[in-house]
Amino acid sequence: MSKFNRRDFLQAGGSLVAASAIPGMIPSAFAAEPVKLGLLHSLTGTIALAEASLVDAEKMAIDEINAAGGVMGRKIEPVIEDGASDWPTFAEKAKKLLDRDKVAAIIGCYTSASRKAVLPVLNQSKGLLYYPTYYEGQEEDKYCMYPSQEATQSVIAAIEWMAKQQGKTFFLVGSDYIYPRLCNKIAKPTIAKTGGKTLGEEYVPLGHTEFSSIINKIKAAKPDWIYSTVVGGSNVAFYKQLKAAGLGGDKQKLLSTVVSENEIDGIGKDNAVGYYACMGYFQSIKSERNDKFVKAIKAKYGQDRVVGDPMQVAYNCVYLWKMAVEKAKSFDVEKVIAASSGLELDAPEGKIKFHATNHHVAKKVRVGRARADGQFDIVFESGVIEPNPFPKL
Fold first, then answer.
1. 259 and 339, same domain (yes or no)
2. Distance between CA atoms of 175 and 46, rounded to whole angstroms?
């Protein structure tokens, strides 16, 4: 059999497992094929400002895992696709990853619209998605894991903290899609419960760049706080125009649940100084685990790279999948999902733990104020908040 090569053996109906049992048949390096992991994000389009950096974090996690021996003895092979900030494209690429590339799981999506587009594909192909972005809740899909904060974990904590500061009047501004509208649906009764008042609520299309009309309404209303869920490239225009109108961070209090360090890199540090954000993670967290993570990012991608919340959660997603596979001792999607119940990870943000049944995680959230260097001073940290994806509103 010495002249009977690997390809001949497989074409004859053999298997790598069987072949590996024959001494000298196949080198041990070929004993296990790589396992494919899909990375599906907007690398182009208006959401790329917020989303493209997630791929870098996922690739770093994959490299770390491969350097340590892979997953169950198999190297991870990333298959990267561009959702192009277009929801039908996300669905198309997810189908390609699952049906043609046969990936074991997908780490992907950013907006809720992209995730919603992918869910039917997951259910049809019985594929598994790890969704690395904070989102509005109101969902529990069998084939989706949600390792970031759902809205009650960030919005309620943020509004309650804001109301304890100076003033209780709010003006809500968001991009016009699922996440901002449902976040505001949670924010408004929370504002009322704190004794506060909502003075205005405005939405703009994704990619919108002209905020003068809304800014005039804000100036007329004179709110203590702007609560912003404007996403992606629109924030470049929004923050610049607020500052130009005399509503910069030194004059007007604004808190966003969608602007991390990565977005500030695109918005411009000068335009974001003094504004607040509520996230599960900030790069400025002081811990040995986070210091190691940040140093690794900078060593791999350059000392100027910054790390935002979704980027850190994207990194966590790869490790959560690895841990579930190893706990299940299988790449089978159903077994990986079952093994995820109660799974705990010591992440850069701190310990996070999957809920026993609802695929979300218990975690802390924090409020930070943007500095001139684009980092955040953490001014508030919650206790561990259990996920509540279906709150009574």
1. no
2. 12
Chain centroid to CA 180: 16
Mean pLDDT, the chain, rounded, equals 91
Tell which phi-psi region holds residue 363, choosing left (phi > 0), alpha (psi between -120 and 50) or beta. beta
User: Within 10 A of 54 (CB to CB), how many other CB atoms are there?
Assistant: 29
Higher pLDDT, 46 or 79: 79
Residues 374 and 232 reside in one and the same domain: yes
Cα(285)–Cα(260) distance, rounded to whole angstroms? Answer: 13
What residue numbers bound the domain in which 357 lies? 32-149+286-362
Q: CA 357, CA 352: separation in Å to the nearest integer?
A: 15
- Tell me, what CATH number does 171's domain have? 3.40.50.2300
Question: Both 354 and 376 in a single domain?
Answer: no
Instruction: List the 344-347 sheet strands across, edge first.
Output: 344-347, 350-354, 361-362
* Helix/strand/coil for 11: helix
Question: What one-letter code names the amino acid at 136?
Answer: E
Three-state secondary structure along 64-106? HHHHCCCECCECEEEEEEECCCCHHHHHHHHHHHHHHCCCCEE
pLDDT in tens, 156-192: 999 999 999 978 999 999 999 889 999 999 999 999 9
DSSP for residue 255: E
Q: Residue 282: CB partners within 8 Å, gap ≥ 6?
A: 260, 261, 309, 366, 368, 375, 376, 378
CA 137 from chain centre, in angstroms, equals 13
